[in-house]
Design a protein that fits this description.
With about 260 residues, the chain is α/β, with parallel strands linked by helices. The chain contains 5 helices and 16 strands. Helices cover about 20% and strands about 45% of the residues. Bound molecules: NADP nicotinamide-adenine-dinucleotide phosphate.
Length: about 260
């Protein structure tokens, strides 16, 4: 028997849809279980799916997500409200395929003896200094690569490459490529400071380490979550071992979603 939960954006349209989907699935004898769902239906947009992902992050290996969009077509939310009958029948009656997308693992280590903090991002992690420009030594696979000075740095997953990363001039990466992309936010390039200037795509196990040059505080974002970190020694980013799982009931190729969203 399958357990399900629904996470809704909270607006009226999404709330009405949530009620309908819940009634349908209960009629099909599925079990409403907000604690341990096998499948989570997110109603709203990509932002809602990000919230759902972080809500169930402790059981990411046992939960499949599916997104219904009540606004524009999303990358994670690709079912329309008109299709929900079809969707609930699929969920209740057909064994579904699971597709997995890579995640970004972020480990923050501190100058004092605090325990390191670990995070998983589905879209990206960004780093900005609280005051003044960010100055970071960027290390790739154990080797110093550059000293960045500018507004900030963004490390994105392939599925997050269409979000903040895209606004920074990053490439769109197909989610079948286990990789992370490092993009710059307004780097200062002159005779003193120099960065590569192009976004970099790193494969699995090529760790990117950001080492702050001076002892300043940082704003670190993990998807929509905003965190303040003090006394940071390093920020380590790499492709996570964990993956996010999506329930797939029909093909909806990534490039088609890219085209329909942007072109
Ligand atoms: P928000 O500022 O309310 O919304 C950000 C927008 O990004 C929404 O339109 C959202 O779609 C869309 N989005 C989210 N994930 C996406 C993806 N993987 N591909 C394409 N578009 C995507 O913030 P939020 O809803 O809390 O979402 C947080 C995300 O905002 C962050 O992870 C970051 O990627 C993005 N962001 C982007 C910029 C920028 O582009 N300059 C700046 C800051 C943050 P929906 O409308 O469907 O929810």
């Amino acid at each position: 028997m399958m357990n399900f939960a629904i996470i809704s954006k909270g607006d009226e349209v999404s709330a009405r849809l949530e009620k309908r989907i819940k009634t349908y699935l209960l009629d099909f004898d599925l079990i409403w279980d907000e604690k341990n769902p096998d499948i989570v239906i997110s109603i709203g947009g990509d932002g809602t799916l990000l919230h759902a992902f972080h809500h169930y992050i402790h059981r990411v290996d046992r939960t499949a997500f599916v997104g219904v969009h009540t606004g524009h077509l999303g990358f994670y939310a690709d079912w329309t409200p008109e299709e929900v009958e079809k969707l609930v029948i699929h969920i209740a009656k057909t064994p579904f395929q699971i597709i997995e997308y890579p995640l970004l693992e972020v480990t923050v280590r501190y100058l004092d003896d605090r325990m390191e903090s670990k995070y998983l991002a589905m879209n990206e992690c960004t780093v900005k200094s609280v005051e003044g420009s960010l100055v970071m030594d960027v290390e790739i696979k154990g080797e110093h690569f550059e000293t960045f000075r500018g507004d900030g740095l963004c490390l994105a997953t392939p599925s997050g490459s269409t979000a903040y990363n895209k606004a920074l001039g990053g490439a769109i990466i197909h989610p079948s490529l286990p990789s992370i992309q490092l993009a710059e936010m307004a780097s200062i390039n002159n005779r003193v400071f120099r960065t590569v200037g192009s976004p970099l795509v790193l494969p699995q196990h090529h760790t990117c380490l950001l080492n702050p040059v001076n002892d300043v505080d940082f704003h670190i974002t993990i998807d929509h979550l905003f965190l303040l970190h003090e006394k940071v020694k390093s920020i380590q980013c790499r492709v996570a071992e964990e993956k996010v799982r999506f329930a797939r009931f029909r093909p909806f190729p990534f490039w088609k979603r890219v085209k329909e969203s942007f072109v």
